[in-house]
Amino acid sequence: MRPLVFHRILGILIPVLFFFSCTSDLDFNQVNDLKLEPVFVSNLAHFDVPANQFVTNGVEQVVTVDTPTIDIFNDAFFKDNLVRADFFFEINNTINRAYTLDLVYLDKNNQALYSTNFAIPAYTGVENLVTKTDVFANAKLDLLKRTTKIAFILKMLPGPILSESSTGSLKLRSGVTAYLVVE
After folding, report:
1. Which of 168, 169, 170, 162 is nearest to 58 (CA)?
2. Of 104, 89, 171, whose CA–CA distance to 135 is shortest?
3. Sites in the chain below the pLDDT cut of 50
4. What pLDDT score does 151 carry?
């Protein structure tokens, strides 16, 4: 009989405790003050071109062009929330020829909006890394948001003749760090 009385008292006491517990008013307007600042890191482009690919039927190909579509920055979410983008490039040349690499940022009408270039020295037997970070903010960021393609224009400079048996390669790897503010 005692357990029954104990359960009744406990059954009354618990709701009474909840009735007298401390509470405060909830402010659902706090969600209007929410500010998220995510950072996204992603690969941008890469290539690994062996020296013999600069030779076709015994003739050196002095200029190579590739124009991939990169329209992620045209997305409404990125246009509204992107506040900065850092592009990182690393080029490793193990070919005994010097090169230049021009990056031309193009809009939907293939009009150049912005360009940057790299001088890539010839390989001399030691590590030959060229790195560059290009920061897009403010007015420069507006140009990036209008970019739909990036033209990679690789030019081989004068030097020792390449053949289909030439060794070495030209490697590019790049990435982008995008800083957003979502309010």
Report:
1. 162
2. 89
3. none
4. 92
Residue type, 171: K
C-alpha–C-alpha distance, residues 102 and 119, integer Å: 9
Q: Distance between CA 168 and CA 170 in Å, rounded?
A: 7
Alpha-carbon distance of 171 to 129, in angstroms, equals 10
Residue type, 151: A
Q: What is the DSSP letter of 132?
A: E
Per-residue model confidence (pLDDT) at position 95:
95
Give the pTM. Answer: 0.77
Q: Give the domains, in start order, of the chain with CATH numbers.
A: 35-180 (2.60.120.660)
Q: What pLDDT, on the 0 to 100 scale, is given for residue 48?
A: 92
Looking at the chain, which runs of residues are DSSP E strands? Answer: 39-50, 55-56, 59-60, 63-66, 82-93, 99-106, 112-120, 129-136, 149-156, 169-180
User: What phi, psi does 129 have (nearest 5°)?
Assistant: -95, 135
* Distance, CA of 171 to CA of 183 (rounded, Å): 40
- Closest to 136 measured CA to CA, from 87, 74, 72: 87
List phi, psi (to 5°) of 77: -60, -45
Burial of 147 (0-12, 13-18, 19+ CB in 10 A): buried
Query: pLDDT at position 74, please?
Result: 76
